[in-house]
Write a structure and sequence with these properties.
The protein is an alpha/beta fold. The protein has one domain (about 25-95, about 140-335): Vaccinia Virus protein VP39 (Rossmann fold). About 30% of the residues lie in helices and about 25% in strands. The chain contains 10 helices and 11 strands. It has helices at about 40-50, 55-65, 65-80, 90, 115-125, 160-165, 180-185, 230-245, 260-265, 290-300; strands at about 30, 145-150, 170-175, 195-200, 220-225, 245-255, 270-275, 275-280, 285, 305-315, 320-335. Strands 1-10-11-6-5-2-3-4 form an 8-stranded mixed β-sheet. It has a 3-stranded antiparallel β-sheet with strand order 7-8-9, with no helix packed on it. The radius of gyration is 21 Å and the shape is globular. GO terms for molecular function: tRNA (cytidine-3-)-methyltransferase activity. Belongs to the methyltransferase superfamily. METL family. S-adenosyl-L-methionine-dependent methyltransferase.
Length: about 350
């Protein structure tokens, strides 16, 4: 049924490598869309239960109060080393790729830097053709025709591939992170172009904090492994606040940790903050979702389901002959076009 949050038939483009013969498991580094056995699921639940004794409230509060510090430290230590650009982005989320438009053909191959430079020149000439949504105040990207916001952008592993690949002259990308260190790294990146991109520090969980973009002006909001870093009590208000920024027909894209992901099963005792919510050794926190929980968050925010699926992958360490199960959830929810004013 349309409202059910699970059981989507349409599997996306992500995985095409299926493990049919278990003896072949070490032939590749990863297998896609792996079905779990009942034993495996039961073992995972048992493991999570063993480590579900929450830390004392004062300890939990400390991680909440100092979250900013911990993330700043994280980016200071790792800077750019820890991160790979996300090659799956455009197959999973074609909403981020250049849009096919009537006046020019879509050539994914031909997006070299010369094209982009030409595009930004074209953009300067064509801004008057695109009416801005809000004429009263000039905000960054107010003359753009297609606006993307990435929340929790880190050092720009999603933003920069979008800017490099998507040469739509009407594109403007906003990106924000809780960590001022991360935002600084984005702004000092040689690929950062203030004419096409605006990076700012923002705490997603503080719904009083204002965004530099008016409500109803965004086409796409991207959340990649970021909602899971919020305190579960703050998730609903944060998603509802973000939903207001979308224009009718706009879409929210999410990819995040699913329940019983290997990372959840690997937590040692004494790391659990509350149900399915943990603190890592470096003080950063992470939640592991079910499809239904995410469905509820989005629909409560007034959005409608386009996609909600689990991506189970089997990752293999060939050297150590270890198998590791990853569980990610991918969602797309859009803002319906309101007919009544």
């Amino acid at each position: 049924s349309a409202n059910s949050s699970t059981g989507d038939v349409k599997r996306p483009q992500f995985g095409t490598r299926f493990l049919t013969d278990p003896r072949q498991v070490f032939q590749h580094n990863a297998w896609d869309n792996v079905e779990w056995t009942e034993e495996q699921e039961a073992a995972a639940k048992k493991k999570v239960l063993e480590n579900s004794q929450p830390l004392p409230p004062e300890k939990q509060e400390e991680y909440d109060d100092r979250a900013n510090e911990y993330w700043n430290d994280f980016y200071t230590i790792h800077e750019n080393r820890f991160f790979k650009d996300r090659h799956w982005l455009f197959t999973e989320f074609p909403e981020l790729a250049p849009r096919r438009s009537l006046n020019h053909e879509f050539h994914p191959e031909g997006c070299g830097t010369e094209d982009q430079e030409q595009d930004s020149l074209d953009q300067e000439q064509s801004t008057e053709a695109a009416p801005a949504v809000h004429t009263d105040d000039d905000f960054p990207g107010s003359s753009a025709t297609y606006r993307i916001l990435e929340v929790g952008c880190g050092v720009g592993n999603t933003v920069f591939p979008i800017l490099k690949t998507n040469n739509d002259p009407g594109l403007f990308v906003y990106c924000c992170d809780f960590s001022s260190t991360a935002v600084e790294l984005v702004k000092t990146n040689p690929d950062y172009d203030p004419g096409r991109c605006f990076a700012f520090v923002h705490d997603l969980s503080n719904v009083e904090a204002s965004y530099p973009i008016p409500d109803g002006t965004l086409d796409v909001i991207v959340l990649i492994f970021v909602l899971s870093a919020l305190h579960p009590n703050k998730m609903q208000a944060s998603i509802s606040r973000l939903a207001r920024l979308l224009k009718p027909g706009g879409v929210m894209l999410l990819r995040d940790y699913g329940r019983y992901d290997m990372a959840q099963l690997r937590f040692k005792k004494g790391r659990c903050l509350s149900e399915n919510f943990y603190v890592r050794g470096d003080g950063t926190r992470v939640y592991f979702f079910t499809q239904d929980e995410l469905h509820e968050l989005f629909t409560e925010a007034g959005l409608e389901k386009v996609q909600n699926l689990v991506d189970r992958r089997l990752q293999v360490n060939r050297g150590k002959q270890l198998t590791m199960y990853r569980v990610w959830i991918q969602c797309k929810y859009h803002k319906g076009v309101q007919l009544d004013s």
